[in-house]
Design a protein that fits this description.
heterodimer; A: about 425 residues; alpha/beta; 14 helices; B: about 70 residues; mainly alpha
């Protein structure tokens, strides 16, 4: 049997159900790994060893009494803008260090009810915006893990936990997944209640998930979405799958990224899938502009009062963005929102002809620590509320992860995971970074 | 500020910069120059595409009200 830190979420559940491992043993191993590596990686804002071990003991007791829960014993890192009762929700913002959550966010309650163990809170960029978090990329400590869900993605990549929660308002689930070499899934808008999650932009905020295996993503997504366990992916053949490769995103990418994703498409074709090249029905620079205006206006509105009160505590990038966003005329914001609906309708028609769009998740490999990376490519699915997943499909010449993004039709959340599984079956995925142990 | 397809990025930037100076003072407005240039570029891109009077209403979620026939 693998060491507990090597287990995926699905393997953990299977072994816990079978009585081959205890939840306490798994959690202790993961906490030991966090202790060993978090000094360098800094994935955790608050590691709750005491709470996690108490929850693990209770889950072992339930198991002994015959309970078999869908996420029985699966450890989870929770992005630090999502409330966990009894722990601070700091959000990278010093005045919130003592802001202790009185109750769990809705998604944390659902995770606990399904048998998951909350290990703690993972670092985020301040308020899930653009000032980098302290977290470093487990593949290279001098590179960025991206943002905003930096700690969540890094913790999964470093095998400190098999499952983590993130959020995305521009590219904050998908981009950290790409830079850290794990799977990141941003389901459709409204997939899960955002009660207990600090907002950044009400109409753009999504909750997302990180794992190291597609099966784990299906397990977590299905369980949290109310599917009856066991949640498994249907069997499928890639030859019956239709993809649209979006060439404009390859043209905007670094050559190594473009070659990699074009190579993924070639391998899918060789395996029998239908892959056609087609441009978006709307120029992408216009799609991005619509996102940027809505983002600027909503974030300025969300933070207006707090910014006045705590101005000196805001990071420079966020403070500048909010000050600028405050100046946006309402007519432009409303015009952008009208275009958003029009583009969403066009895209729903475009997606009806395919199982998934293929594009790079990010235009580059992981950047240096002063930035969180290029967010453009992730905003297409965010703006339109479409399900999107980032798959860690290769390594660059610098030994950093490269990723392929799939975007699916609005109502096809589990279907997109099935397509993702077919892609991974054909092109494979990278393993975990070598942390020297 | 006019929502006009002929209103250029430089027109928009000039208005944003003036607004920033009124609101925050000259020094802060200068510090925001990069953000304002980005916003002006985005506003020009969105503004150049006009919609019919009775076309789509603003959306809040990205979910279209009706599907393409």
């Amino acid at each position: 049997m693998s060491h507990p830190t090597m287990l995926t979420a699905s393997e953990t559940v299977r072994l816990v159900h079978g009585g081959e491992v205890s939840v306490t043993g798994v959690v202790r191993s993961l906490l030991d790994r966090c202790q060993a590596h978090d000094g360098a990686i800094q994935a955790w804002a608050t590691l709750d060893a005491e709470g996690a071990l108490a929850a693990a003991a209770e889950l072992d007791r339930l198991r002994a009494n015959g309970a078999r829960l869908p996420l029985h014993g699966v450890a989870v890192a929770v992005k630090d803008i999502i409330d966990v009762a009894g722990l601070p929700t700091i959000a990278g913002f010093a005045p919130f260090r003592e802001r202790i959550a009185r109750r769990d966010a809705a998604i944390v309650s659902a995770l606990r009810a399904a048998g998951a163990v909350i290990l703690g809170k993972a670092h985020t960029t301040q308020f899930a915006a653009g000032d980098p978090a302290p977290t470093r990329n487990p593949w290279n400590l001098e590179r960025s893990p991206a943002g905003s869900s930096a700690g969540s993605a890094a913790a999964v990549a470093a095998r400190m936990t098999p499952l983590a929660l993130g959020t995305q308002t521009a590219g904050s689930v998908l981009r950290p997944a790409a830079f850290c070499g794990v799977l990141g899934y941003k389901p459709a808008y409204g997939w899960f209640d955002v009660d207990g999650v600090l907002p950044l932009c009400w109409s753009l905020d999504h909750i997302g998930l990180y794992t190291r295996a597609v099966e784990d993503m299906a397990l977590a997504y299905g369980t949290l979405g109310g599917s009856t366990p066991p949640v498994t992916l249907p069997s499928g053949d890639v030859s019956a799958t239709r993809f649209i490769l979006l060439p404009e995103f390859l043209e905007m990418s670094d050559s190594e990224v473009a070659e990699h994703v074009a190579g993924v498409a070639d391998r899918l074709r060789e395996a029998g899938a239908t892959v056609v090249e087609r441009r978006l029905p709307e120029p992408f620079d216009h799609v991005f502009a619509v996102h940027q205006l809505i983002f600027a206006a909503e974030s300025a509105a969300v933070h207006g009062a707090n910014l006045s009160r705590y101005r000196e505590h805001y990071g420079p990038r966020l403070r500048d963005a909010l000050d600028a966003g405050t100046l946006l005329p309402a007519s432009y914001v409303l015009h952008a929102r009208r275009h958003r609906r029009r583009i969403a309708r066009l895209m729903d028609g475009f997606l009806s002809e395919t199982d998934a769009l293929i594009l790079p998740t990010v235009s580059t490999e992981a950047c240096d620590l002063s930035e969180t990376g290029d967010r453009r490519f992730q905003t297409l699915a965010t703006l339109l509320g479409l399900p999107a997943i980032s798959l860690p499909t290769g390594l660059s010449r610098n030994g950093l992860p490269l990723a392929t993004q799939l975007i699916g039709p609005r109502e096809g959340g589990m279907r997109l995971l099935d397509v993702a599984r077919r892609v991974v079956d054909v092109v494979g995925q990278i393993g975990s970074p070598d942390l020297g142990d | 500020m006019r929502l006009d397809p002929n209103y250029t990025e430089s027109n928009i930037f000039a208005e944003l910069a003036a607004s920033a100076e009124r609101q925050y003072g000259a020094e802060r407005a200068e510090a925001l120059r990069g953000n304002l240039q980005h916003l002006a570029r985005m506003m020009a891109l969105v503004g150049e595409r006009q919609l019919e009077l009775d076309a789509d209403a603003p959306d809040t979620s990205g979910i279209p009200e009706r599907s393409e026939p």
